Amino acid sequence: MLATDNHIGYNERDPVRGQDSINTFKEILQLAVKYDVDFVLLAGDLFHENRPTRETLYEVMALLREYCMNDKPVQIELLSDPDEGKAAGFSFPAVNYEDPNLNVGMPVFSIHGNHDDPQGAGPQGALCALDMLSVSGLINYMGKIDLPINDADALNTGIAVKPVLLRKGNSKLALYGIGNVKDQRMHFELRSNRVRMFMPKDKQDWFNILLLHQNRVPHGPQQAVPEGMFDDSIDLVVWGHEHDCRVEPEIVAGKKYRISQPGSSVATSLGDGEALEKFVLSVILYRTKNCQTHLWSRHVALLEIHGKEYQMTAIPLRTVRPFVLDDVSLAAAADDEGLDITDRMEIEKFLKKRVTELIEKANTTWDERNARAVEEGEAELPRMLPLIRLKVDTTGVSDMSNPVRFGQEFQGRIANPRDVLVFHRAKGSARSGGKVVVEQPELSIDDPNLTNSEKLSKVRVQTLVQEYLSAQELQLLGEAGMSDAIEVFVDKDDIHAIQNHVSNSLKNLMKGVSLDDDFDEEELEEMVEKVREKHEKEYLERQQNGGVSIKAKGKARAEASDNESIDSMMMDVDIAAGSDFDEESDPPPKKTTKKAAPKKAAAKAPAKAPARGRGKKAAPPPSDDEDEDEEEEEAPKPVKRTNRAATLSQSTSKKAPAKKATAAKQATLSFAPSGRTTSTRAAASRAKKKNEVIDLDSD
Amino acid sequence: MLATDNHIGYNERDPVRGQDSINTFKEILQLAVKYDVDFVLLAGDLFHENRPTRETLYEVMALLREYCMNDKPVQIELLSDPDEGKAAGFSFPAVNYEDPNLNVGMPVFSIHGNHDDPQGAGPQGALCALDMLSVSGLINYMGKIDLPINDADALNTGIAVKPVLLRKGNSKLALYGIGNVKDQRMHFELRSNRVRMFMPKDKQDWFNILLLHQNRVPHGPQQAVPEGMFDDSIDLVVWGHEHDCRVEPEIVAGKKYRISQPGSSVATSLGDGEALEKFVLSVILYRTKNCQTHLWSRHVALLEIHGKEYQMTAIPLRTVRPFVLDDVSLAAAADDEGLDITDRMEIEKFLKKRVTELIEKANTTWDERNARAVEEGEAELPRMLPLIRLKVDTTGVSDMSNPVRFGQEFQGRIANPRDVLVFHRAKGSARSGGKVVVEQPELSIDDPNLTNSEKLSKVRVQTLVQEYLSAQELQLLGEAGMSDAIEVFVDKDDIHAIQNHVSNSLKNLMKGVSLDDDFDEEELEEMVEKVREKHEKEYLERQQNGGVSIKAKGKARAEASDNESIDSMMMDVDIAAGSDFDEESDPPPKKTTKKAAPKKAAAKAPAKAPARGRGKKAAPPPSDDEDEDEEEEEAPKPVKRTNRAATLSQSTSKKAPAKKATAAKQATLSFAPSGRTTSTRAAASRAKKKNEVIDLDSD
After folding, report:
1. Which chain A residue shows the shortest CA-CA distance from B132?
2. Would you call B30 an interface residue with chain A, using a CB distance cutoff of 8 Å?
3. How many CB atoms lie within 10 A of CB B645?
4. Catalytic residue check, A213
5. What is the pLDDT, as a whole number, of residue B108?
6. Which residues from A are below 8 Å from B51, CB to CB?
């Protein structure tokens, strides 16, 4: 079963809608049980808040324990290493149904989204809410990618993706998860061959699913991930983040794979402003001359796989609150129906009639659906108050009543009385009487998923911070990084973001300032000033390049200047790039400028590569070979401070030396007889299975 | 195994000490495994922060999963209802080793402390960090008590304590948990017979342990819980909260029970200011003319029980950072050793020598202990940097160097270079040169466990809030409640505390203000003003009475005016009080004043009680009978909005009607043969066991 963007905890303080997201997640789990699925796949944003409230975390844990823990035999055999990505220093496996102490009947696999992405830098690295579920054995978190944290993370070496390999009977399934990173960065990593996919040698025999959580609809340059940039060995891409429901796998021009976009399971935006264009509403109910009524319908997807064949079935969710969106122009109503737009009471009466119609429409639809479900043997659900949004074009109207007071009359009949009406005006007319749709701020906001008010608050913080900082004449810390740190502090509720930024920045500054015992204070100030300026400049450049260090960036530009025509570069790991990254794992060379970098890297790489004892294809020139995956020996040696690519592959690099000797042997291991896969307790057979793990390691 | 006050997460950002608390908790779990204990008992403050960071929660979850989940047979049979206190709406039991889907080898039972107490009011009631561990099956959380939340909670009806009943062989153990509430309230509840202990009928055959987490050392009136106020049927009280280690059970004058105080497993205060007096240090190392050196030693306790006999063994913890505290007077040093106290450099040299001596002392002790442990077959531990605190009496010295700069020299040699020195002066001398010990603020602060700086920040917030609010001429909301809400917001990191307070207050206000359709605005203002004043007054009175409603308070005063001589009133549940509380579950009577209350309650109660169909002892006069426990029929009928007494008994009141019919039968059920208790998986026998549950219900 596929689901995504459950956004649990969204609007949880709302007296009417507070339990919506959790109720729908419960329905999804119940559907998964009903359809007797092998496992549940989630494509990010399980949680709406980066730090979910206790109430939310508690309910999610309870639901997962209730529906996923039971005696049902798990029939999917894990062929990848169950310990990859496990908590450092502990013995229990990363994959919960491999733990002999837990009776997992229905495993859940999930990547993180942009809302619930990892933050912080403790002994276990960055952590997110999914880690809490994973460490307690309730889900299997995959696709973790460390974020570049401030200046210290310039050594960042791309994204490595290791699959979870599963088998049931003759069907072999590889799950590739890439949790959300900023689109800018993902775009860059894809373009510059820094996304390394580790695939089994017989990848063509596997059904390969890629889970990701990025913008699909472009919002400015590099503000989305192009659909056609993934490897041709992928069979299906499950795309999270975009909230409209496009379950049916869609063809991508020139690619073999298709994209399925299950869409969100809860309405986090009522489609005002630019959000409206993004949301493709699945049912258009009725259409009049000057208004359209949409009714939102949400689904989970049932994915059936047999070998390389698959079938996707959308299952409508019944606990989703009906949502009707409509549009009306008062001027048009004046023309068509003779509405007196100078009379406030008259307008109010007109709008109330409209809203009442929409409520009836929503309720009728609910009742029809409910009746259909009951016919099909489902339980009857009590009617839910609908979400109603009427967008009113007030152009030419001078006196409008207060929309909040207007909504009070609908209390108890709709779920959102406070914002049922949204007023807007055609461009050129400056003011409107009531609530005004907030104008899109000039600044670029990364996340198109935010409501306008969220964006507005974001912009205000940024603006305030920038204004404040630029007035300070900072001696040690630059403005740019501080502004980002404050954003994380505000958006991700990370109280240590600023502290971390400051201490990292200071550490970096210290590197550039060497002191004798008796230094001159004036000299010190000068030195500090220079170093700060340098770091500030570097930081800004790195920001423009999607958070990636300057040298690598320069190289990527040189190689991959065309955005659209690049086809599946992600598999491509060339030696030049590899040695360049190795280089960066040492203390960063001083005074490297942006332009010098690519040349340097290219010059160094071929000379160094053979000395490292790489095999048959020691130093090929950079190529666009699409089938690089079987040449994993070519992958750059993991640098000391590497990204943890996927949670489920986190510990790989540490284990590499021990495995090296047996790599050849493991690679040719045959699989266990398929009868084993139906054993009730994975526990008993775990020791046995360990020998059958498919090894994806490079060196 | 007994442990308490682990304060995990304390000082977690400290580069040296950050992992101390988690390391010691790990050691405790390892000791529990080593000694093959039946279960672990924690007496509160497992977490230092009310909302632990992800890092802390993650590590604690991982440790519990690592050490508590295994195939080891649990030999303690649960005789109380495993479902009492389970998550509402879910099927898994509250006691983790009764869950057939979890292999629990070593159960952990815990109450909450004052640091990690429940907050908020979601669908599952107030939640705390322990709930996250409990819902994921990692611990068994007991002793939950809802806090009185603002005005709406005036219906608060005391504290009901239901035990967890365990048996191993012929030994029967009853665990009574009372999580922390404000001392004021606990004191009041004890004095006014509102703590109801539900005990098995044959309580004398059980070994009865009471876990609590309150101040034991008095800090002003009602700022501690007297040692002698508990029921005589209790055999042992395990007292959390107090950080000094007094494991050896101590006699309580005039009582049969003893008190064991395991003490904290981590140093959260370096004993400056008033904290010093509170901490009884277990080892005095050496003593010179003008200074004492203490070395802190921390223990967990191994409790062995056979029938009613028990034995307590203190086990020293090895991962506890050595802590040496010393005291020096510069004036005395001038007299005795001829120190020139006008020479700053001379003083610095003198102090450095002292600190160096203390470091050596600490290291020697560590090495000796380590050597002893190694002799006993334990692993050698790498030496930990010690905590050193030198209190310097600077009376008569005018020029002192900066203590932070002083500490820099000891970086890498001690764990707390920033605060190794603390300066203070004899009273009368106004100023000192360096860091001054913060003076105890005038305001009464409830928690003697706070450091002075924590207290200071607390006072500041309170003062600021009060000043601000009193300047506002508030029309609707009173100052008093708001100040409390802001305190919760700050201390417990509960972002909704203020919102909750406001909406509750408004709800209460609304009750007193009834509006016609056409009301006069001036009239409204007047009405609102009156109601606000009334509520404000009531709130303040309730605050003075420990958060308990006025009527009950008045009654308690009348009955229990003597603080010290009250002996075991807690078992006493009289009808008058009962009906009084019942009364309060209706909308609170208007215009009740403090003085009128006791009379009214006394007058009403006897008349009403028989009408409610209470049994044989319908309306006895209030008595001090100590053996009330077997007369549970007398307990007041649970009011609609009752406190959830203990987590493990939460669902009792809801289940009462269903159980009523079978109560007599259940009460006489005989226990299962003891052979059963050693079955490997509690799972298989759970259905069977359900019939044997001991019923403690009252009506």
Report:
1. A58
2. no
3. 27
4. no
5. 97
6. 54
- CB contact under 8 Å between B100 and A138, yes or no, is no
Residue A401 lies in a domain: yes
Buried (b) or exposed (e) across A318-342, using 16+ Cβ within 10 A? Answer: bbbbbbbbbbbbbbebbeeeebebe
Q: Residue B467 pLDDT more than 90?
A: no
Which has the closest alpha carbon to A643: A159, A220, A179? A159
pLDDT of residue B480: 63
Counted across chains A and B, CB pairs separated by less than 8 A come out at 123
List active site positions of B.
Answer: 115
Amino acid at A270: L
The angle that helices B596-608 and B575-585 make with each other, rounded to 10 degrees, is: 100
Residue A248 identity (one-letter amino acid): E
Give the number of other CB atoms < 10 A from CB of residue B401.
Answer: 15
Which chain A residues touch B100 with a CB distance below 8 Å? Answer: 71, 103
DSSP state, residue B411: B
Q: What is the rounded CA–CA span in Å between residue B576 and residue B583?
A: 11
CATH, residue B384:
3.30.110.110
Nearest to B131 among A58, A135, A136 (CB): A58
B363 touches chain A (CB under 8 A): no
What is the H or E stretch that residue A316 is in?
A: strand A309-316
Return the number of other C-beta atoms located less than 10 Å from residue B414's C-beta: 24
B128 and A87 in contact by Cβ < 8 A? no
Judge whether B397 lies within some domain: yes
Task: Tell me, yes or no, whether A272 lies in a domain.
Answer: no
Q: Does B13 touch chain A if contact means CB atoms closer than 8 Å?
A: yes
pLDDT in tens, A4-23: 999 999 989 898 999 999 99
Q: Check if A127 contacts B (Cβ < 8 Å).
A: yes
| Contact between residue B67 and residue B134 where contact means Cβ atoms under 8 Å apart | no
Mean pLDDT over residues A247-273, rounded?
78
List the Cα angle B556/B559/B561 in 5-degree steps.
Answer: 85
B630-654 pLDDT per residue, tens = 333 333 433 333 333 333 433 333 3
> Residue A582 has what pLDDT?
31
In chain A, DSSP finds a helix count (H) and a strand count (E) of 18, 22
Q: Which candidate in B21, B29, B61 is best for mutational testing of the A interface (most A CBs within 10 A)?
A: B61
Instruction: Give the phi and the psi of residue B473 in degrees, each rounded to 5.
Output: 50, 65
Q: Is residue B338 in some structural domain?
A: yes
Q: Compute the distance between CA of residue B168 and CA of residue B685 in angstroms, rounded to an integer.
A: 16
Band (pLDDT 50/70/90 cuts) for residue A475 is low
- B122 neighbourhood in chain A, CB within 8 Å: 53-55, 58
**Looking at the complex, does the CB of residue A102 fall below 8 Å from at least one CB of chain B?**
yes
Residues B217, B230: Cα–Cα separation, whole Å:
16
**Is A686 in CB contact (< 8 Å) with chain B?**
no
Catalytic annotation, pick one of A7, A112, A115, A501: A115
Q: Given A54, A132, A496, which is nearest B61 (Cβ)?
A: A132
Residue A597: is it exposed, middle or buried by C-beta count within 10 angstroms (0-12/13-18/19+)? buried
Length of chain B: 699
Give just the sign of the alpha carbon dihedral B222, B223, B229, B230: positive
Backbone angles phi, psi at B391, to 5 degrees: -90, 125
The number of folded domains in chain A is 1
Q: How many whole angstroms separate alpha carbon B225 and alpha carbon B242?
A: 12
B92 reaches A (C-beta below 8 A): yes
Task: Work out the angle at residue A226's Cα, subtended by the Cα atoms of residues A223 and A232, and round it to the nearest 5 degrees.
Answer: 150
Provide the residue range defining the domain that includes A400.
Answer: 323-424
Contact B128 A101 (CB under 8 A): no
